[in-house]
Design goal:
Blueprint lengths: L3 E12 L5 E13 L4 E5 L6 H8 L7 E6 L2 E2 L3 H4 L2 E4 L11 H11 L4 H14 L15 H12 L6 E5 L7 H16 L3 E6 L2 H5 L4 E6 L2 E7 H6 L2 E9 L3 H9 L5 E6 L2 E7 L4 H10 L3 E9 L2 H11 L12
Parallel strand pairs: 3-8, 3-9, 6-7, 7-8
Antiparallel strand pairs: 1-2, 1-4, 4-5, 9-10, 11-13, 11-14, 12-13
Helix pairs in contact: 3-4, 4-5
The structure holds adenosine-5'-diphosphate (ADP) and magnesium ion.
The site of adenosine-5'-diphosphate has 12 residues, from β1, β2 and α1.
């Protein structure tokens, strides 16, 4: 059984006041997330990530398609008790203290007395809220509120958590702490589904990712495979290359870019069409020493940019036939 699965999940919003027209925010998303994995739901702003999470939480309803959590249709009451949700930019009643807020949520899940107090202490420790837990939330920074939001989402010891941009508003240290927390959740067997427009968050955390652009799934799978799937060329480092030899390599199209590293020492970019071993042989024959050869792979950042570049821009249903 998958932790999360969606099938052709689609959402149109109606935009425009006088003549409302449908706007396709999510276009036929089919996805499955296995139990116990940290799954990164990636995409630039406006890709449809929040829309998807809201659909999974039943804060909004799909135009078509369906979604299941832990093998049950979303909205199943039994399942709601087993999941946690951190909304994007969480907003809380800000006259409450962090402790009071969590007491309220813990109460909703039936925790009481000593048990409730212990649980709240532990969660606030876990997300790194210290003595400030006795302050009203309106005195909290964005990053602190984000942590309170995460504590809130974990109050019922969920099996699956949904985090919408959990690192947003956090400084580098805060991001690292949240990453650490996500890994701890994973180690206890919790499935973590989180959205982000920041790729480095995913690269260090996720086993698998989905990339969304313009409301459509543009890639999904193992992060290592996605990164590996394109070697764009080679980078070699050489010593003993004269300027005139370099010029010749450039005019022959063998070298696309050269970075001087020292006297007669260069890092050279070669296109994919150049066979590095053959080039190495001919360079060695000219007395040039080869220090290293490395494949240049696409980073997730490049991948992202390329996908966005090709994503459909116009999602007005009237103009795009589907
Ligand atoms: N309530 C709404 N009404 C109309 N359009 C919306 C609404 N919510 C989101 N959108 C649009 O749907 C698209 C996807 O938004 P969203 O799911 O918030 O993206 P993301 O979370 O990836 O940044 C965006 O173009 C956004 O402007
Ligand atoms: Mg969003």
């Amino acid at each position: 059984m998958d932790a999360i699965s969606t099938e052709s999940l689609t959402k149109h919003y109606h935009v425009g006041f006088w003549r409302p027209r449908p706007y396709l925010a999510l276009d036929g998303l089919s996805l499955s997330v296995r139990q116990g994995e940290v799954f990164g739901f990636l995409g630039p702003n406006g890709a449809g990530k929040t829309t998807t999470l809201k659909l999974l939480m039943q804060l909004i309803y799909p135009t078509s398609g369906r979604a299941e959590i832990l093998g049950k249709p979303v909205g199943d009451v039994g399942v709601k008790r087993r999941i946690g949700y951190l909304p994007e930019n969480p907003y809380f009643y800000d006259h409450l203290t962090a402790e009071e807020l969590l007491e309220y949520f813990a109460g909703l899940f039936g925790y009481s007395g000593q048990d409730r107090r212990r649980r709240i202490e532990m969660l606030l420790d876990e997300v790194g809220i210290g003595p400030e837990r006795r302050l009203q939330l309106r005195k909290f920074s964005k990053g602190m509120l984000q942590r309170v939001g995460i504590a809130q989402s974990l109050i019922n010891d969920p099996e699956v958590v949904f985090f919408d941009e959990p690192m947003s508003g956090l400084d580098p240290l805060g991001r690292r702490e949240i990453r650490h927390l996500i890994l701890k959740l994973r180690d206890r067997g919790c499935t973590v589904f989180f959205s982000s427009h920041v790729l480095s968050d995913a690269e260090t955390l996720c086993s698998r990712v989905a990339v969304l652009a313009g409301g459509r799934l543009v890639a999904a799978g193992d992060l290592s495979e996605l990164l590996a799937f394109q070697v764009r060329g080679w980078e070699i480092v050489v010593v003993g290359l004269t300027d005139s030899d370099l010029e010749k390599l450039k005019t022959d199209g063998v070298v696309t870019h050269a970075i001087p590293l020292g006297p007669q020492r260069f890092a050279l970019d070669l296109p994919l069409t150049v066979e590095p071993a053959r080039l190495a042989t001919s360079l060695t024959a000219q007395g040039v020493q080869l220090v290293s050869i490395n494949p240049v792979r696409e980073t997730l950042e490049d991948f992202f940019v390329r996908q966005i570049g090709t994503a459909p821009k116009d999602r007005g249903l009237g103009t795009v036939a589907r």
